[in-house]
């Protein structure tokens, strides 16, 4: 039996078809962050701050340029970012900084794969060696719960046609309202 015989291509097709959900999620978060100077308030979550940092990768499978990577101090505020969004690109990958419960978490989100990497977990300055692992695991668990609730908020909107239509209108107005 060959490798190709043993692969279930429908699983790969499903993953490929579902990657837009994660990129749409990241783009929705970006809109919320940008419209409110980083401050986001959602159901079932305490208010938190979110900032999109460098680099940010935009993706669309339509057009000549399918991938655009922006770097610099504030790449999401650039005319190039809004041009990518106007062209129908969504955020495929981004460096993010979340501040919730007075703690700062930084990470890279590969939105198409819904993969978090490089997560930096805040630790108290004077934590003892005996407590270090317990505190780190507690912070990881808190962040995991936070991200799950955040994504569930998105899915609740996405699965409600009427609400999602309003979200799409808001995102379009945000993109169209950019002034260079």
Give the amount of beta strand, in percent: 15-25%
Largest sheet: 6 strands, antiparallel
Mean pLDDT score: 89
Radius of gyration from the alpha-carbon trace, in angstroms? 18 Å
Counted by DSSP, the helix tally is 5
How many domains comprise the coordinates? 1
* CA-CA gap between termini: 58 Å
The succession of helices and strands, N to C, reads HHEEEHEEEHH
Structural class designation: alpha+beta
- The helix content is 40-55%
Number of DSSP E strands: 6
> Shape, please?
globular
* Unreliable runs: none
Structure characterization notes:
- The chain has 180 residues and is of the alpha+beta class.
- The protein has one domain (15-170).
- The protein has 5 helices and 6 strands, in the order ααβββαβββαα.
- It has helices at 3-6, 9-35, 79-86, 129-158, 161-176, and strands at 39-40, 48-59, 67-70, 90-100, 103-110, 115-120.
- Helix 2 (9-35) crosses helix 5.
- The protein is globular and about 55 Å long.
- The model has no long low-confidence stretch (mean pLDDT 89).
Q: What are the SSEs and their pairings?
A:
Layout: H1 3-6, H2 9-35, E1 39-40, E2 48-59, E3 67-70, H3 79-86, E4 90-100, E5 103-110, E6 115-120, H4 129-158, H5 161-176
Antiparallel strand pairs: 1-2, 2-3, 2-4, 4-5, 5-6
Helix pairs in contact: 2-5
């Amino acid at each position: 039996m060959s490798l190709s015989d043993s692969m279930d291509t429908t699983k790969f097709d499903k993953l490929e078809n579902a990657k837009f959900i994660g990129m749409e999620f990241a783009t929705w978060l970006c809109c919320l962050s940008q419209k409110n100077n980083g401050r986001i308030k959602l159901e079932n979550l305490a208010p938190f701050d979110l900032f999109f940092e460098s680099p940010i990768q935009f993706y669309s499978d339509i057009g000549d340029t399918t991938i655009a990577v922006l770097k610099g101090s504030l790449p999401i505020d650039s005319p190039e970012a809004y041009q990518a969004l106007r062209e129908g690109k969504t955020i495929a990958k981004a460096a993010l900084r979340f501040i919730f419960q007075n703690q700062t978490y930084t990470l890279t989100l590969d939105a198409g794969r819904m993969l978090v990497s490089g997560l930096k977990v805040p630790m108290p300055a004077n934590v003892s060696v005996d407590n270090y692992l317990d505190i780190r695991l507690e912070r990881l668990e808190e962040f995991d719960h936070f991200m799950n609730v955040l994504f569930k908020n998105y899915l609740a909107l996405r699965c409600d046609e009427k609400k999602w239509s309003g979200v799409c209108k808001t995102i379009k107005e945000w993109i169209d309202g950019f002034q260079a």
